[in-house]
Amino acid sequence: MYELGIVKRNIVRADRAVVDQLGKFGSATVHEAMGRVGLMKPYMRPIYPGAHACGTAVTVLLQPGDNWMMHVAAEQLQPGDIVVAACTTDNSDGFFGDLLATSFRARGAVGLVIDGGCRDVKDLTAMHFPVWSRAISSKGTVKSTLGSVNIAVVCAGMSVDPGDVVLADDDGVVVVPASMAQKVAGAAAAREANEGEKRAKLAQGVLGLDMYKMRGPLEAAGLKYID
Amino acid sequence: MYELGIVKRNIVRADRAVVDQLGKFGSATVHEAMGRVGLMKPYMRPIYPGAHACGTAVTVLLQPGDNWMMHVAAEQLQPGDIVVAACTTDNSDGFFGDLLATSFRARGAVGLVIDGGCRDVKDLTAMHFPVWSRAISSKGTVKSTLGSVNIAVVCAGMSVDPGDVVLADDDGVVVVPASMAQKVAGAAAAREANEGEKRAKLAQGVLGLDMYKMRGPLEAAGLKYID
Amino acid sequence: MYELGIVKRNIVRADRAVVDQLGKFGSATVHEAMGRVGLMKPYMRPIYPGAHACGTAVTVLLQPGDNWMMHVAAEQLQPGDIVVAACTTDNSDGFFGDLLATSFRARGAVGLVIDGGCRDVKDLTAMHFPVWSRAISSKGTVKSTLGSVNIAVVCAGMSVDPGDVVLADDDGVVVVPASMAQKVAGAAAAREANEGEKRAKLAQGVLGLDMYKMRGPLEAAGLKYID
Amino acid sequence: MYELGIVKRNIVRADRAVVDQLGKFGSATVHEAMGRVGLMKPYMRPIYPGAHACGTAVTVLLQPGDNWMMHVAAEQLQPGDIVVAACTTDNSDGFFGDLLATSFRARGAVGLVIDGGCRDVKDLTAMHFPVWSRAISSKGTVKSTLGSVNIAVVCAGMSVDPGDVVLADDDGVVVVPASMAQKVAGAAAAREANEGEKRAKLAQGVLGLDMYKMRGPLEAAGLKYID
Amino acid sequence: MYELGIVKRNIVRADRAVVDQLGKFGSATVHEAMGRVGLMKPYMRPIYPGAHACGTAVTVLLQPGDNWMMHVAAEQLQPGDIVVAACTTDNSDGFFGDLLATSFRARGAVGLVIDGGCRDVKDLTAMHFPVWSRAISSKGTVKSTLGSVNIAVVCAGMSVDPGDVVLADDDGVVVVPASMAQKVAGAAAAREANEGEKRAKLAQGVLGLDMYKMRGPLEAAGLKYID
Amino acid sequence: MYELGIVKRNIVRADRAVVDQLGKFGSATVHEAMGRVGLMKPYMRPIYPGAHACGTAVTVLLQPGDNWMMHVAAEQLQPGDIVVAACTTDNSDGFFGDLLATSFRARGAVGLVIDGGCRDVKDLTAMHFPVWSRAISSKGTVKSTLGSVNIAVVCAGMSVDPGDVVLADDDGVVVVPASMAQKVAGAAAAREANEGEKRAKLAQGVLGLDMYKMRGPLEAAGLKYID
User: Rounded CA gap, C156 and C150, in Å?
Assistant: First the structure.
């Protein structure tokens, strides 16, 4: 349950070296390496093509139409962090723009994932400050009601703890619990190595049906070929 | 209330000089300068990144699946106008394509904002004719039922009078009533001047918490820092 | 009605020469040439701007969260085919990524239209493998439940028979039954020829009102001009 | 454009006798009598079947997640009023529940139309206090940011002026400008008289094709009967 | 592909006796009996709880905002028919109300399934005329543009041929091709007989795990019980 | 992060007496008593009006189109439990119907909250077995892929731990962590006592403006009354 009005200062961040390892993979690869879990909902989209970020989560719980807590979160940022902002209700207002991006970057943040709206898209694109959001909206926000910073949040359907690794790219956003980051990085590397070989075979015309030995299971399941 | 079957020929357009002033700002800045009002809903998106337009509104009320009134509107266009098209019901059909864009441009129009669908996106992009729409759709339309031109309309949740200033960019679409355009342009300029200084401070690592003097109000609201 | 667990091997593809003719037109032109029918719903969007494909449909019926049939479909592909994948329920999972694209391309496929999710967007864009989908999602899929290949499917609201011509571009996706392809190609060519002349007139400032002789019908319908 | 922080006390309400006349019709009849305009979007649904209300609009502009202005509006209510609440952004929070309903009813209000959420549905149903809303939600709201009362608002896509007649039933919500109420009431009465006769004929098996003399126009439009 | 402007008079209806057999089952049972296919999308909802209908399809293709073809369809109705109305684009207008219902009933129709809007819900409920629709809306429609009657249509994602059996209840709408109706009725009966026994066992506390012998497969799939 | 293929047998349920206390309140009251948190998203709706349930959560993680884990969950149920089912992706299939309801009830379950579809609505209503779901759908499901039972899940945007109190009614679904249940029950009781008095005052015509002493703060915020 959300406790409001709280800022947790000391959070345990995933190990930097592991974050860097994970950052070399795509979100799909890491999601598969985790056992096909960890994804936010696909309505979260990057504000520009090619956006990519991997960092340790500083979490923010926002109130609708109110971005007060974003400023509170700025102070808690450390280099390599990515801000993950949830809201107590569905809201598409423009909680974030180029001024906050300037501040977040000055503190070392590598991006923002926000289950809300974002504005100043042209400037953010020019700055190469990557944002994943549910909407783009000029709508301004007030600074009146407390949320929290660095509590566990649910963002776009996925629970995120402060310090978790968050990896985002063109395909979406995946969350890796800090405690599992090392193991997942290993699994992702193994998977990726594996993919190169598969890709080469498929490019030569080998069928997945043969490469993955699917013909037997398909027949067993009752698949029928007709002419 | 909408009166159907009406074309108003003489509308009072916002002053050209003021429109040009407003056109230098982003939609978020102008929205803030108006007191955080005037925005269309964020489902209105530009058909290509970087689209930007600012003009005086010629309004169109469409019927679903029918773009007859777009042709009627073309005749009412003057250089510097932007067409704002509403519909009597939610409809995503392709009311507008490159032929109408050619006609609108020949009449001096600077863009289109349509609470409906748009097609010929590739051609429109090549022409640099900016359109903000709720959908992209090849779906063709008929020419059978009257709507109106240059009546007050509600487009994407915002009321627009003919002659109002409409400013649209990557962040969305904002409507400035003609009677307020001068005042809003002034407020936007003041705001923007102000932003440069703020941005510099934030870039140096100054926190919004301090720059905006938020620590007191946050404490008064009950914010607690824990370790 | 869908029959599950079926792969039809011998399908009658539309004539290659006609497919190539149709491929020169946009989806809006072909849709108009068909009498304003044949479109999938506009939620189907290309994964990158400028995507374009025209081919003969190999159809796939998927089960939610399961991409087994995509591998079965790969074997049925011939050069010039486009895969059209429907699902038995609304589902946005990432049924397709760069490995399958590599396989499909090796078999000669020119693109994919999928009423589901797609992943590896960055790689697919780099490969110039065009995909139209309802969503982009990293979400992985299983290989457990039979669908079918090369049965008649409904994809994004449009029925598609194997062998039909499917043309997709920035504006959407249009389906031309194989039996009508030649006739539609002719009508599209006539329409396009016609469009060049219209465009030139409109660019010179001629109004659609006059070019299409709309003033009489508008007056008859009761349109009133006021000042 | 919305002016925030304003409460207009003296509004011109539509004539009570006309409101009562209009209240005898359904929303569809009144919408047709207006020339097929005046409807809010169909996402506005009554919280219980059979809900019906017709009154003079007291308008409220809300901020997201904030119902402060509902209390301000209560003081402006007169017997026979219906509250019409818009919001500066899409928001489904529970701005209204049984306490406010008790207050509104004590002031003589006959119902609420809110482009937001409503809660205490069971109690409101028991009270027979009719509400049309975009959502039902327990989500509570704060009282921090000013909106306005009795300014012109856009609610669910329709502009509403204070004092307008608002009629809502199972089919939706229609807004009749105060200045047109008398004329619309007359047209609605004529239409309804007309409907009884039509209904009787149709019940006897007379076809609309004949009753409305559609066969000629259909043939002229090119309709073909085949066997 | 849709051919517009066509009314097919002679359609082959599924056998009445079989329709009556199917009408005794729920939509879920029939869908399962067909092999888990045949359903329209779940956005199709009955206008009142407990609505139930089973009949032979007379199909209608509508144009957006235009209900002309509904009147054309009325003439083609025979006792026991159910009207299935599709539209060339997504549209929620109120194509159907109590007058058309009176006409349809006079012709013997048992209900309507419409991928569009419906109005006069209170009257239709009082008449016990069941309708499944995507929306409820007072929005009136014109009579200007041809669609077709008794062509194959796609309604809410499902293809329907004239004469097919359409069964609709609280759970949704299922379509049974006329040629398969007898076989499906038999399978549904077998399934339902089967269900009574299962229900009794489950009510006594027998677990599905045991009744369906799932423990082995679950263990084989790797399920682990922990404390 | 979700671990798949796990069934936790021993969970710590909230105290029965406290669950019963909480069950006397509405979801809005409990949500307020928690400090305005704990709600699932408002797309979760009861399948019949007046549905009400309060129990201890047995959680289920489903895979799309697959209800295998529902049978696994049945075995873990104890009297007073409510099943909370999440899914690894958005899916509206009919995971649950009257057979599973019979089984769940035989095990003592008081209801189901499912971020997916439900079917057999008529039977479930007749049984008075309350369900809150995101959709109603006849669509059947397979039993092929493992999820988990009694792990922490995110259901409709809210995190739920096994053993938490889940209270659902016409207004929505609220989750109370087991550890806070006693405290929340106390706060809810205090709040409700308080509400009776407020209701009486409001019914007598006292304004919220006065009862809540809002006039000062409104004036301080700048509210202006005009005539």
Answer: 17
User: Percent of chain C beyond pLDDT 90?
Assistant: 96
- 8 Å CB contact of D180 and B1: yes
Closest CA to E152 of C84, C153, C162, C159: C159
Judge whether D33 and D182 are in contact, CB under 8 Å: no
Please answer whether residues A195 and A135 qualify as being in contact, where contact means their C-beta atoms are separated by less than 8 angstroms.
Answer: no
**B24, B54, B80 from B17: Cα distances, Å:** 11, 12, 11
> For residues D118 and D135, is the Cβ–Cβ distance under 8 A?
yes
Query: Quick one: pLDDT band at residue B195, thresholds 50, 70, 90?
Result: confident
Q: How many CB pairs under 8 A join A and C?
A: 111
Q: Is chain E in touch with chain F: ≥3 Cβ pairs within 8 A?
A: yes
Burial label, C205 (beta-carbon count in 10 A; 0-12, 13-18, 19+): exposed
Chain C residues within 8 angstroms (CB to CB) of chain E: 1-4, 34-38, 41, 88, 90, 152, 154, 157-159, 175-177, 180
Q: Which two tokens stand for residue B82?
A: 């932007």
Around Cβ D159, how many Cβ atoms within 10 Å? 20
Burial profile A57-75: b = 16 or more Cβ within 10 angstroms, e = fewer: bbbbbbbbbbbbbbbbbbb
Enumerate neighbours of F (3 or more CB pairs within 8 A). A, C, D, E
- The strand ranges marked E within chain F are 6-8, 45-46, 53-62, 81-87, 94-96, 111-118, 131-136, 148-149, 153-155, 158-160, 165-169, 172-176, 224-226
Best residue of E2, E4, E89, E91 to probe chain B, by most B CBs closer than 10 Å: E89
Q: Which residue of A has its CA nearest to F38?
A: A1
Residue F220 token pair? 């301080």
**ipTM of model:** 0.96
The answer to whether D207 contacts E99, with C-beta atoms less than 8 Å apart, is: no
% of chain B beyond a pLDDT of 90 = 96
**φ/ψ (deg, to 5) at A177:** -55, 140
pLDDT tens sequence across C42-61: 999 999 999 999 999 999 99
Residues of E in Cβ contact (< 8 Å) with B119: none
- B65 neighbourhood in chain E, CB within 8 Å: 63-66, 88-89, 91, 145
- At residue B153, the pLDDT reads 98
Give me the mean pLDDT over the C130-146 stretch. Answer: 98
Contacts of D164 (CB under 8 A, 6+ apart): D14, D56, D57, D175, D176, D177, D178
Count Cβ–Cβ pairs < 8 Å, chain B vs chain C: 110
Give E46's Cβ-side CA count (13 Å radius): 24
Rounded to a whole number of angstroms, the CA Rg of chain F reads 20
Answer whether D170's CB lies under 8 Å from E122's CB. Answer: yes
Q: Give residue B22's pLDDT band: very low, low, confident or very high (50, 70, 90).
A: very high
Q: Which residue has the higher pLDDT, A25 or E194?
A: A25
Query: Which segments within chain A are labelled E, that is strand?
Result: 6-8, 45-46, 53-62, 81-87, 94-96, 111-118, 131-136, 148-149, 153-155, 158-160, 165-169, 172-176, 224-226
Q: 3-state class of E172 per DSSP?
A: strand
Query: Three-state SS across chain C?
Result: CCCCCEEECCCCCCCHHHHHHHCCCCHHHHHHHCCCCCECCCCCEECCCCCCEEEEEEEEEEECCECHHHHHHHHHCCCCEEEEEEECCCCCCEEECHHHHHHHHHCCCCEEEEEEEECCHHHHHHHCCCEEEEEECCCCCECCCCCEECCCEEECCEEECCCCEEEEECCEEEEECHHHHHHHHHHHHHHHHHHHHHHHHHHCCCCHHHHCCCHHHHHHHCCEEEC
Q: Find residue D166's DSSP bridge partners.
A: D55, D175
Nearest alpha-carbon partner for F55 in F32, F89, F31, F78:
F78
